[in-house]
């Protein structure tokens, strides 16, 4: 049976979910697919390209049309959709963050944030900056959330030693930051009229 690109991606995501990003090696992936490591390079010239494709697969839920009409609700919808996609895979936020930093992902998620900011009547340059700000807020918040979940799962975090138990649940923390961000855009847009 011939190895397909989608088989390689499925195998990589299975390793990511079962083990971790650190354990996602080309050798382990080849072994799990019962092929020689060289067979993987037919589809992906290197591990970085594979990770970019895995990030794109993780971010596929952001490709769906935005349901919300109002720009603020669109930003909320997209931010939650991004967070949910990242949380759906072990180390998803760390992987996507690394591929964004190295420009290996082809996703249009940031551009969707830009479109919503433009609907708020932000100038293009500021909409671009706002999109990066929101993207990295979601990535950073979710990296922290996933790290805490993993530390808690191995018993490192306890009620006495962790601020995890002192703050509201992760979604409440996320929503608070998102409200501050959207409030900042509201304030900025209203200042243009002065």
From TrEMBL:
Keywords: DNA-binding, Repressor, Transcription, Transcription regulation. Residues 2-62 form the HTH tetR-type domain. This is TetR family transcriptional regulator. It comes from the Bacteria. Signal peptide: none annotated. Pfam families: TetR_C_1 (PF02909), TetR_N (PF00440). The keyword Transferase does not apply. The keyword ATP-binding does not apply. InterPro entries: DNA-bd_HTH_TetR-type_CS, Homeodomain-like_sf, HTH-type_TetR-like_transc_reg, HTH_TetR, Repressor_TetR_C, Tet_transcr_reg_TetR, Tet_transcr_reg_TetR-rel_C_sf. Residues 25-44 bind DNA.
């Amino acid at each position: 049976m011939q190895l397909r690109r989608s088989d390689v991606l499925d195998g990589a995501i299975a390793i990511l979910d079962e083990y971790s990003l650190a354990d996602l090696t080309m050798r382990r992936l080849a072994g799990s697919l019962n092929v020689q490591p060289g067979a993987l390079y037919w589809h992906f010239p290197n591990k970085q390209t594979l990770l970019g494709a895995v990030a794109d697969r993780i971010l596929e839920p952001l490709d769906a049309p935005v349901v919300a009409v109002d720009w603020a609700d669109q930003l909320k919808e997209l931010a939650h959709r991004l967070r949910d996609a990242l949380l759906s895979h072990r180390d998803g936020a760390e992987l996507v963050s690394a591929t964004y930093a190295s420009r290996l992902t082809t996703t249009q998620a940031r551009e969707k944030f830009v479109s919503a900011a433009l609907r708020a009547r932000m100038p293009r340059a500021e909409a671009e900056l706002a999109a990066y700000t929101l993207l990295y807020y979601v990535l950073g918040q979710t990296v922290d959330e996933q790290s805490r979940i993993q530390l808690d799962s191995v018993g490192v975090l306890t009620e006495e030693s962790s601020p995890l138990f002192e703050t509201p649940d992760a979604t409440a923390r996320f929503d608070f930051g998102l409200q501050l961000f959207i409030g900042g855009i509201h304030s900025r847009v209203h200042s243009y009229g002065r």
